[in-house]
Design a protein that fits this description.
The chain contains 10 helices and no strands. It is mostly helical. The longest helix is centred in the first third of the chain and has 25 residues.
């Protein structure tokens, strides 16, 4: 734990109390299990393992809204390669996973690896998905265009993720939060709503 992680955890706890609605809290707790359920449905439909489908979804996620990410994954799983709404390099990563490559060796970004594991596991005690919205949230920056922040340094990523882990340890006494990824999901939903983004259903 760094001093910065400790400071950020205080901000996270404050935001959790002040900005999250009951709906945000409810959806945040169920967010990653819902993602896992969606991936499991795709896996059953296409005769693939949950691990593979979680990897494909994660590979196609950079700079994609969820509805586009989900559509791209369904198309790749159906055998399409051209015209998939994702970066070409990410389509190639998804195809490599379909062809048997281990997702952890193909997904090089900290965010895509965390996204993969959280979908696969339906949430866990360690991973936190840190994207541009979360970075802006903990930094106190506002504005719809600020989500396009580019690459997050490994040090920044780990300090922010650790801040959520610290916050989660402080929240276990209320009987509601049990995982740092639940807090991340709830605050992500609340922050996006405050910036004018509409949340669509996962499945």
């Amino acid at each position: 734990m760094t001093a910065r992680s400790a400071r950020l955890s205080i901000r996270i706890l404050r935001l959790l109390r002040r900005t999250c609605t009951e709906s945000d809290r409810y959806v945040g707790v169920g967010y990653w299990p819902s993602m896992q359920t969606f991936a499991a449905r795709l896996a059953a439909k296409h005769g693939r393992s949950l691990d593979v489908v979680a990897g494909v979804i994660s590979a196609l996620s950079p700079n994609n809204l969820w509805r586009t990410n989900a559509a791209a994954a369904a198309r790749v799983l159906s055998g399409e390669r051209a015209g998939v709404p994702a970066y070409g390099r990410d389509v190639r990563k998804a195809v490599a996973i379909l062809e048997g490559a281990e997702p952890e060796t193909v997904l090089l970004g900290l965010k895509t690896r965390s996204f993969y594991r959280l979908i696969r596991d339906g949430g866990n005690e360690v991973d936190v998905c840190v994207d541009g919205h979360i970075l802006n949230l903990v930094a106190g920056r506002r504005g719809r265009r600020l989500n396009a922040v580019g690459r997050i340094s490994p040090r920044d990523y780990e300090e922010i993720a650790d801040a959520f882990r610290i916050a989660a340890r402080h929240c276990t006494t209320d009987g509601y939060w049990t995982q740092p990824c639940q807090i991340q999901a709830a605050l992500w939903l609340s922050w996006r709503a405050s910036q004018g983004f509409r949340q669509r259903r996962i499945a």
